[in-house]
Amino acid sequence: MPLPFALPIGLLVGMSLAWLARVELGRSEVPLVLARPFLVAAALGAIVHLPVVAYFVAMHGDWAYLYLVRFSRIPSAVDLALVIVAAAQVPLGFALASPWAIAKRGPALLKLGAVVGALLIVACVVASRRLAVSASFAQYHAGFGVAPLADTPLGRGVLMSWIALLAGYAWSAHVLKAPRAD
Q1: pTM higher than the cut 0.85
Q2: Distance CA 116, CA 16 (A)
Q3: In 3D, which of 126, 141, 5 has the Cα closest to residue 68?
Q4: Pairwise CA distance, residues 154 & 76, whole Å
Q5: CA 176, CA 180: separation in Å to the nearest integer?
Q6: Which pLDDT band, with edges at 50, 70 and 90, does 28 fall under?
């Protein structure tokens, strides 16, 4: 997924996991960063979200930056830092939403999630032409060699990444909703 969209998606995933874990978080007697639900969210960010974002930055860099900058001019250390920040959004969203989830302030949490989601949808609509094609920076801006996303390896990568993200999210939700024998 493009880097600008990896940030709000990670936040939304983390926030929703916090809501799913609200009962266990309310009973937890350890600091948040040591609580099992937080560790599940951190693992999802590290094991699923990070590789998905890293794949697009490494293999389809110009698309990952939405053809706004030439990928080859960005230092790899900046790429690495941005991928790590994107992966950290899952546990960050979890940590930000945890107090509201524990207090069972669902409407407030839903409003915040709706605002983030609405901003994400608006950004997707604005960038839809850039998201729908596969090309290099030069090809995109010169208008040659641009291929529809569905006809390229990038399109298959997008499909597989969403399958991986949804499977990781489903497993995390299952783990957080499963009753624990204490």
Answers
A1: yes
A2: 12
A3: 141
A4: 20
A5: 9
A6: confident
For residue 105, is pLDDT > 90? no
The mean predicted confidence, pLDDT, of the chain is 93
Residue 101 neighbours by CB under 8 Å, 6+ apart: 18, 19, 21, 22, 25, 109
Whether residue 180 is predicted with pLDDT greater than 70 in this model: the reply is no
- DSSP class per residue in 124-179: HHHTHHHHTEE--HHHHHHT-S-EEGGGSHHHHHHHHHHHHHHHHHHHHHHHHHS-
Confidence of residue 166 (pLDDT cuts 50, 70, 90): very high
Distances in whole angstroms, Cα of residue 160 to Cα of each of 56, 91, 112, 163, 167: 12, 23, 29, 5, 10
Strand partners, 133: 148
Owner of token pair 């299952």:
174
pLDDT score of 145:
87
Side-chain-side CA neighbours of residue 104 (13 Å): 3
Taking the C-alpha atoms of residue 20 and residue 169, their distance in angstroms, rounded to an integer, is 11
Phi (first) and psi of residue 132, to 5 degrees: -85, 0
